[in-house]
């Protein structure tokens, strides 16, 4: 099972990805985690990424795509994986399609967590308050201004993927405003319908 979780920041992609990992035994592939792992492992692409990051620059699509391709060749991805936070652009979506085709694989579904933007801001504020109440430091992203910037960036670059995957017949929409358990149950219903 090869899936993409799509939705704006704060939609619950990370939470749902972890539940899918636990239930289906397939890894969640986060580009940030993959970049750090490649750098730490000292792979060729990791060295290239490190040089770019050390220079304070953004890692190019070419490097990110290479790291994803390297990662999906790992044995734990043999039965599938969940892409979370990648692809972010149409060019990256084309790269995913190409790298899967090269391996004789295909994407099974893109699950969009549909959410209300105003409610998302409320979720972020609540998450920050809960962190403070628990004596923890809130995540940098849990600042409403930072979050709204990330939301704008999502709509500017990533929202185009909704139409892209819809046109390919791969888009499945789930109400991301439901409870965590209800979202999980709906995702499982979607997955059962595509098997």
Oligomer: single chain
Average predicted confidence as pLDDT: 90
Strand content: 5-15%
Radius of gyration: 17 Å
Order of helices and strands: EHEHHHEHEHHHEH
Query: How many H/I helices?
Result: 9
What's the N-to-C terminus distance? Answer: 9 Å
Q: Uncertain spans, ≥5 residues at pLDDT below 50?
A: none
**Coarse morphology:** globular
Number of strands: 5
Structural class determined from secondary elements: alpha/beta
Largest sheet: 5 strands, parallel
Helix content: 55-70%
Structural features:
single chain, 195 residues, alpha/beta, five-stranded parallel beta sheet, 9 helices
List the helices and strands and how they pair.
Layout: E1 2-6, H1 13-24, E2 28-30, H2 31-41, H3 44-54, H4 61-72, E3 81-84, H5 90-102, E4 109-114, H6 117-133, H7 144-158, H8 160-167, E5 171-175, H9 180-194
Parallel strand pairs: 1-3, 1-4, 2-3, 4-5
Helix pairs in contact: 2-3, 2-4, 3-4, 4-5, 6-7
Question: What would a concise description of this structure say?
Answer:
With 195 residues, this protein is an alpha/beta fold. 58% of the residues lie in helices and 12% in strands.
Description of the structure:
By secondary structure, the chain is an alpha/beta fold. It has nine helices and five strands. It has a five-stranded parallel beta sheet with strand order 2-3-1-4-5, sandwiched between helices. Helix 3 (44-54) runs antiparallel to helix 4 and helix 6 crosses helix 7 (144-158).
């Amino acid at each position: 099972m090869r899936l993409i979780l799509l939705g704006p920041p704060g939609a619950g992609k990370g939470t749902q990805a972890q539940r899918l990992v636990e239930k289906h035994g397939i890894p969640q592939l986060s580009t940030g985690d993959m970049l750090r792992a490649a750098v730490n492992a000292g792979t060729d692409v990791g060295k290239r990424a490190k040089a770019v990051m050390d220079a304070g620059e953004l890692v190019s699509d070419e490097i990110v795509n290479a790291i994803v391709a390297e990662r999906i060749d790992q044995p734990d991805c043999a039965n599938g994986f969940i892409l979370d936070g990648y692809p972010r652009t149409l060019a990256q979506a084309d790269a995913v399609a190409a790298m899967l085709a090269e391996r004789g694989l295909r994407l099974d579904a893109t699950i969009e967590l549909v959410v209300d933007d105003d409610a998302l801001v409320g979720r972020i504020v609540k998450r920050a308050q809960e962190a403070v109440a628990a004596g923890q430091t809130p995540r940098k992203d849990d600042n409403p201004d930072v979050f709204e910037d990330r939301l704008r960036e999502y709509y500017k670059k990533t929202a185009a993927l909704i139409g892209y995957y819809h046109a390919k017949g791969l888009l499945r929409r789930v109400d991301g405003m439901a409870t965590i358990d209800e979202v999980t149950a709906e995702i499982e219903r979607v997955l059962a319908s595509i098997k």
